[in-house]
Amino acid sequence: MNKEELKNAILNNNTINSNEVVVASTRMNKPISYLKQKLDNLNYATNYRLNRYSLKKNSKHPRVSFYCFNQYAMNNVHSHIYVSVPPCYDYDHVLSVMSNEWAKLNPKYDLFREEVRDRNAYAIYSARQFENKNTDTFVVI
Question: Which domains does the chain show, CATH number per domain?
Fold first, then answer.
């Protein structure tokens, strides 16, 4: 799958909110594997706060999913996240839980969110470091 196919798949999926920018920043020079682990911890903590029964195997309770484009910038390993929120949860509440849990992992961490001006342009921007060879550049949690 190339960048264009991935971008179109995310934009055409109705369950993924592509109208809002969510960026999780570490503000550190760490490997992307470190960021992946922290995002996994964030996903676990967010789903636990919303409904702890959704974490069980074969659970009938829906889970919040993250589609993460991990990127490395000088002194800031960060991830552009597309969040898939089930209809039973309020999107703003889920993001406030995410923000609180991300800050608990480390006070230096920052979770930024804002409305997207152009969905297509932001999808291209967030996927700019995506590579098929490198599995760390795109992760679904």
Answer: 3-54+61-140 (3.30.70.260)
Are 40 and 141 a contacting pair, CB within 8 Å?
Answer: yes
Tell me the sheet residues that pair with 80.
Answer: 23, 69
pTM as predicted: 0.91
The per-residue pLDDT for range 49-87, each reduced to its tens digit, is: 999 888 887 788 899 999 999 999 888 999 999 999 999
- Compute the distance between CA of residue 117 and CA of residue 108 in angstroms, rounded to an integer: 27
Q: What tokens does 57 get?
A: 């195997």
Look-up: residue for tokens 């996927």?
A: 127
Distances (CA, A) of 5 to 79, 132, 141: 19, 12, 19
